[in-house]
Amino acid sequence: MCIEELKKSVPSVGIAAVRMFDLDVPSFDLGFNLTPEPKKGNEDNTPEPKKGNEDNKEDEEFEEVKSTLLDFPTDCTCPEKMTTLDPEKSIDGNSEFKTPKVHIMKPSTSNADGKGSHVICMKETYDVEPVSRIYPRQEVERVRRCIKPSGVLLSPFIERVVKLGKEMEPLEKKVCGSIFSARFNEMDVVFRAGSEDGHRIVMESLFPGIEVDRGVIDMWNLVLNDEERLRSKDSMARVFCHTQMVTDSMLSDDMDSATKHFISNMLAILEQTFSSLEHVDLVLFPIVEGNHSYLLSINLRTPQFHIIDNRKSDEMDVKKRYGRVPFFIISNLCSYLASEDHLSTMKLMVVDPVILKMGWRTNMNIVDSGVFVMRHMETYQGNGMFDYKSVLKTEAVGHKEQLDELRLKYLAKILLSDLNLVRNDVKAEAEAYHSLPATEKRRLKREALNKIQGRLANRRWK
């Protein structure tokens, strides 16, 4: 049988199988000739049929070759038939590229009887190690660098302390006039820093002759903590605490519960200022008890515990004069310092509180203790020393005028601080007030004191 007849007998195999068959036919003679020579005398060259066992044997060999070719895979011989990546399955940014699996054909030659040879291909699949990989895109989140103030802003000549005797800026005067006119809703938010809100009625308590609300001191402490970024390298690092560090409920609770509450408050403050007290020199605690306020200062650099109070008193026994509060503060602060392994912990545990004696202490003034606390907070430098520019006059000479001036300047500084998220609204309101007729502004000024006092007396919250 000739090779052309063999090709015609297996039409379903296709070109690929025939090509493979042609390529794998050995070039050497194994004694098996698929194309017999025609016999003489046969003009049409048709082979004579064989008889008996020879016909059966040749048919069996033909069927074996035919069966092999029919089972032969058609995608492993031609390059265009090789398995490739489906172009419809595009590589996106969220899936990893994988090298396609390759089918390897292992030829096997059978020539047991020495009369023939044919190819048997076995299909085997395995993963091929890729030359390179394409990984999905990953958004790398860069850590933002902590922006520190420039050296110019850290100069010791930058004025951070409110200066007495200096003329107020026009905008500052407009802001004070607008707030003290008391012509808008008392619950309007005029100061916002993070989650802290300051209502109009709280800021109105800075009006001269009115007791300062504790909320003003809390807003002032936020402003001072923010300004610590601008301190010079030679200045003492200070942390200002709010007025709720010690409450009546904490004093009545058991010590463990009160200590946990105190440490929680301290951690919340340090999150907004320093990460810890390791590099802090002064920790300042404003205390409000009834209608009187005073300041506690704890020096961590040179362990000292000072009580700064504007009120004169012949009583110098701290426990009799101030009760448990100073000792509660120092005890719980030492507990927190111990958790940080602070070097000053043991020294502070044996330090006794000392009442400072300033020249501007008062006998009769009972409404300005909050203003004194705010002044002491911004000017105290530790070791019993105050900023030399901040010295106040005595109660007998020009004392009241200085305190009233500080009220106005503290109001303007808090509301116009960069920390205040609603300062633009405050500015717009101030400009609107300034555009009022002069007669209307004079009327509002005359009625301001009584109106603000009535608001504070009847407010819905304390």
TrEMBL record:
Family annotation (InterPro entries): Papain-like_cys_pep_sf (IPR038765), Peptidase_C48_C (IPR003653)
One Pfam assignment: Peptidase_C48
Region (Disordered): 33-63
GO molecular function: cysteine-type peptidase activity
Signal peptide positions (record): none
GO biological process, one term: proteolysis
Residue ranges of every copy of the Ubiquitin-like protease family profile domain listed in the record: 239-387
Compositionally biased region (Basic and acidic residues): 37-55
Keywords: Hydrolase, Protease
Keyword Oxidoreductase assigned: no
Top-rank taxon, per record: Eukaryota
Key word Hydrolase present: yes
Family to which this protein belongs: Belongs to the peptidase C48 family.
Protein name according to UniProt: Ulp1 protease family, C-terminal catalytic domain-containing protein
